[in-house]
Structure formats: C-alpha cells, structure tokens
Amino acid sequence: MIAEVVVDIKNKAVNKVFDYLVPEELRDVIQSGVRVLVPFGPRTVMGFVISLKEGTELKKLRPIQELIDVVPVLNEELKELGMSLSVETGSTMIQCFEAMIPNAMRAKYKKKLLCLSQPTHPSIQSLFSHTDLVDYDQVPKGLLKEVKKALEQNEVELIYEVKDKLGKKMVKYVALTQPIVDFSMFNRANKQKLVVSYLSEHDQPVLKSRLMSELQVTHAVLKTLIDKGVVKEIEVEAYRDPYADHVYPQSQALPLNQEQAVAVKSVLSAVESKSHDVFLLHGITGSGKTEVYLQVIESVINRGQQAIMLVPEIALTPQIAGRFKSRFQNRVAVLHSALSMGEKYDEWRKVLKQEVQIVVGARSAIFAPFKDIGVIIIDEEHEATYKQEEAPRYHAIEVAKWRATVHRCPVVLGSATPSLESFARAQKGVYRLLTLSQRAVSLATLPTVKLVDMRQSAKGDQLILSEALRQAIATRLERKEQVVLLLNRRGYSSFLQCRECGEVVNCPNCDVSLTYHKSNQKLKCHYCGFETFLLKHCPACQSDELRFFGLGTQKVEEYLQEEFPTAKMMRMDVDTTSKKGSHQELIEAFERKEADILIGTQMVGKGLDFKDVTLVGVLAADLMLHLADFRAAERTFQLLTQVAGRAGRHELEGEVLIQTYSPDHYVMQCVVQQNYQAFYVEEMKMRRRFGYPPYYYLASVMLNSEDYNELIKACDQVNQYLRNQLGHSCVIIGPTMPYVGRINQRFRMYFMIKYKQEPRLRGVLVQLLTYFQEGTVNLSLDFFPYQFS
C-alpha cells in the first residue's frame, strides 16, 4: 500500500504529494486525512496523508515512520478545499492544511544528537557522559566544529523529534482494584483505611485531587495503596472548558417583528430546498440581526444539521458567546484568539467528534470539520478581520461560499454597513437582499447624530473635548447614564519630537514614529513590537527639549479624569485587553455600571449592547478618512455608523457627537443622516471614476528585502515581467512604496493589479512566486488585498 503525503515544508519547490510505503503494521489503521511522520532528506517531518493507493511508478520508496492520528483530522471536503485554496491564493498546500487545524496540532520540531559509539574527542565524550541523547540547542557553539566531525565519522547521529505543540489534558481518578478489601492488612495505617473506606462507598472512580482534598491525605498514602495492589489509578481525558465558571440560564426565542420573520422564513426556505444562495441581511444597528441568526440556527439543528457562525475577532464579545450558550447550552463550541491554546484545541476536538452542532468563532472557524452544514452565517461581513493577511491569504466569505456549494446550504452575510462589493452584488441580484429597517426593541429609536466642527471649536492642538461634548458628558453623569468615547489610536501620545531640531523619535526597525505609553513610561512601535524607555535627550542634537504630540486613549483617560474627577473611567484597547479574559472582565464590569465612561479604540464600536449608554462621542473622527487607501471613506463610514449604534439601544434615547475637521465631507453627512444608501451612491461614483472594486477585481504583489538595492532590482524584473505577460488586459500600478516603507528591518514595495477578466493572471503570478522562492527578496501574492499600509 502506498500513501500520498503532503510534507510540512513551506516551500514552493516541494508543494506536491510524495509517495511513501505504508508499513505492514499500519495497513489496517492508516486512513486518508491523518497526520504521519515521514523521512524527508536527512530529517523527519510531519505530513498529511492525502490518499492511499496500491501502486506507484517509483521503484524505491521510504516507509512512513509513525502514525500521529487514529482518526482523520481532515475530511475529504477539507482536503479538497485545501488543495483548491492553494491554487486560489498561491500558497502551499501545507499552509492551507495547517490553517484548518488548531495551533496545538501543528508540529514542533526538535533537533537532537544520538550517540552511536564512543566519540573520539574528549569534549564530545563529556557531552554524552550521562545520556545517549542531547538537545542540539544545548551544544556549545565552540563545539559545533567537533560535532560536525563526529557526524561525519558516524560517532553521533542528528535526529529530529516531532511532536504536537500540546497534548490532551489527562485527569487522574482512583478506584479500588477489588470491591471487597481485608481491612486487617492495614494495621495502624489509619489514613490508608480512611481512603479504602471512602472508595468502597463510591461505585464510580473518584477524582484523585478531590479525594486528597476531602480526606487530607498525601500522594505517599495513595502510592502505598497502589503498590499494595489495593487501589488503582486511572487516567481519563478531560476537555479544557473556557466557560466552566459561567452559568448560562436557558433563554427562549424572542418574538420577531415582521421584517425579522420574513428574513428567517427566506433563509429557512433555502435551507429546506438545499439551495446555496447567498443572503445579504442589511439591518440597522440594534435591529435584531442576532435573533434572526439564533432562530435560523435553531431550525437548522432541529433538522439534525450543523451551523457555523462567524463573528469578527474584535466583536467576539462575551455578550455574543453568552447569547449562544444561553440559547443552545452545550451544543455550542466557541473558537477565538482569547482562548488558550489548550482550550482552543479541546473546543475544536468537540467539533471533530461531532459532539456539538454549532461553532461560533472568528475567521478560522470557517474550517470547522462538520459533515452536514445547514447554514453558514457571517456577522459584520464588512469587517477586514475576515481576511487573512499571512499565507494562506484567504477571505472567509469566499471559503464560506465554497463550502456552501459542497453542503448545498445558504450563506447569510449580515451588516448594518455592508461592504460595497456585497451591496453591489445584492443590487444586481447575485445575492438576495433582506432588510431590517427598525430597531428590535419597540421603544428604541436610532440615536440623534450631530457633528462638532472642530475648526470652530478648537483652541490650538491641545483641545481634546469640544464644549458641546463636555456638556453632554456632564449631563449624562448627572443622570447616572453611561458614555462611550471612541478614539482609534492607543497609547498616550502619537510621537515624541525635539523642539530644537525637529527630530521625531522613530523605530530603529520600521519607518514609523514610536508611540508613548505613559503607564510604563515606554516608547513602543505598533508594527514590530520594539520598545524602549522614555528618552531624556534628543538622539540627533542631544537637546532636552523633547515634547509629546498627538493623542492616544491613555491621554484621553487622564484628561477626562481631571475634567470629571468623580466619574469612574474604563479604557478598552490592545494594552488593557492583552491578558486572557481581560476583554470579558472589562465588558462585564461596564455592564454592571462599575464605570461611567468607557474610552476605547475601534473595539468599543463592535458588538456591544449596554442598556444605559445614551451618549457616544467620537474624538478625531478624521483619523482614517484621509489615509492613502481607496477604502478609507468606506471604513470611516462603517466605524462611525457602528459606534453610533451603541447609543440608545433600549428604552433610553441616544445621542452621538462626532468631532471632525471635515464636517462637509459626504462621509460625515451620510453618518449624520445614518443613510447607507446615500453613502453607497456617492462612494460608488468614486470607485467607478478611479477604477476600484466592485468595478474591478484587485490582486497585489508585495516584495520585501533587507537590502534596498536588491529590492529595487527585483521590482524592475517584476515590473517588466508583469507588463510583458499581462499586456493590456490589466491595469498595473507600481512599484509603489506602502504607507510604512520598512517593517522589522525589511524594505517593502508592491504592485497593484486591476482586472475584470484575466484567466491567465493566477498562473502568471504563481510563476513569479516560484522564481523568487530563493534569494534575498521575498515575494508574496494576495488575490483579495485589503491592507496597503
């Protein structure tokens, strides 16, 4: 028997299947979709078995060394999807397969030296004086030359150990080996008698830690009983449950208004007819889209099918997870980055074993190994987080549509501010449009949105709050209502500049300024993670006239504490939510009204529902509007509309104040009117005029190198190749330097390719990728580019 294996080497040159001989002892247990250990050159690597066959044209095959899985981790559908994704994204098959499994299951490689015979060199002898196996990393650098000689003389061998990054969690139980025990054998060993007596009262094995805690006995007591053969220890696999400490009372379906009922009926009609239609559920903020999702999913699982529910990573709040857990209890697995590696692994295994029927998660949950999917729902479908920015550069919506075709089930895309591409498809009838135009809570209305013209209000650059916003906050504090303030920039100050020579303190690795974080007195780079303590003197002229400029969430928090000393503040940004569970704790604390004002970056604008928030303020609303990105206007409109939707979601009336220097811009005017249709019309005019999606498709080619001259040479080669190969069928823009031209010591340039129909494009670009596989210049492709910074 022959196994076709994709090996864990992320190089285009080996992006193919290799034949391996299946040893006799594995023939009855090996299956397609399992992971195996195979020899590849001088090392051992992990691989995925793609298929099994009886013959091969190759004469000499190496055998599979070890079987990692008993049950396949990739089913037939996911294997086919991985190979298709490899072609569609220009990634290797192994990158696509690894994207489908938890990080805990990705192989961890460790080099070791095995002593075969008595080494000649004394230093090598001392290395192996107490063991035959030594970690290669522990070999002193001064000995590497001697190690090389020992390898050549076959005195030692270099071997590769391969393991999962994480194992299963095992819990120890204890039980009696025989139901009847002769107590006379214990003499005066009272603790041993106590344990035996306790275990004889229980029919089932008892958790070891519980027994030790309740009886106050030590490991030594239990070990003695095990050695005597009276007690046995049993290891049982246990899931790591991230929600073990939470109790979710069972919730019932809420009554639907007419628009919600139409939406549910339309989607369920597609479920029943096994149609893979794509629905765009365009519902204003607070219109009850989540209840529509819940009732659709309830019907799907009652049919015996399964459901995938995707939410943007930033919007995967405890509120959403809580609503699903309350409605469906233990039929839900939740997958997101706030979980530990072990928790994620165990939640995924529940899906693999078909122990749950619903997966709620971020982007990668689209690969959930379900066998009979009845519906796929993608909430806040406009969010950029559904696009993977590292290889494989897939878009979750495109993967969802692929899986929906296989399972013959509908896809529901929901948003208050759909992407222009999705709404244009709905207008053309490619997607089926469903609309929710009213808020779900009968007494709730859309908040009043007002613009504050900072050109009139500002008194120098230091003004953070306009008088209008200050008064509005004071009023809410008097009424004991809550306030949400958005500033999409973390840290204390954006940059540190010398007032003598004008020097800005930049990151040594990237072409960006360092951001000041006051809490730990450090300057940080938000691109590569470099940090340093606050400087006292200018690095250019040694002057001590260094001053802070710009505004961040930390500075706003400090300023508001001075302005409203009796108010309780809370800040939500990457700095305050980096620890596990901190995001959840902050939201629950704000829900319990432990703070009056919540200040945060864009994460406060997504998926939050607080009944007492009646004021939303936006500081520096123009931050994203004037970026060199054709989606800047769309993203600004989406963020402002979404954050405005946090106000007045229940009985209390809401108000939104947006501080801007561009009050006449059509984005700001459409936000005030909360008119998506008007924004869509205006933005589509711009997209048509300049030839951007949805009128054109885009692809990008990004090059980076530590050597700037090598990068320029490579760009010339790519430029010539693209223009010769693609001719007039595409618009080729570039080479262009991104907004940040250097990140982590690597200079960057990119090409943007606009096209309507070019069947040869993928082949041309993949050929380019193969050419740049080796060398000092890295090249990457993106067929769904979202970020150009």
TrEMBL record:
Binds 2 zinc ions per subunit. Its EC number is 5.6.2.4. It holds the Pfam family Zn_ribbon_PriA. Residues 270-436 form the Helicase ATP-binding domain. It catalyses: Couples ATP hydrolysis with the unwinding of duplex DNA by translocating in the 3'-5' direction; ATP + H2O = ADP + phosphate + H(+). Zn(2+) 2 binds at residues 507, 510, 525, 528. Zn(2+) 1 binds at residues 498, 501, 538, 541. PROSITE patterns: HELICASE_ATP_BIND_1, HELICASE_CTER. InterPro entries: DEAD/DEAH_box_helicase_dom, Helicase_ATP-bd, Helicase_C-like, P-loop_NTPase, PriA, PriA_3primeBD, PriA_3primeBD_sf, PriA_C. Keywords: ATP-binding, DNA replication, DNA-binding, Helicase, Hydrolase, Isomerase, Metal-binding, Nucleotide-binding, Primosome, Zinc. The keyword Zinc applies. Belongs to the helicase family. PriA subfamily. This is Replication restart protein PriA.
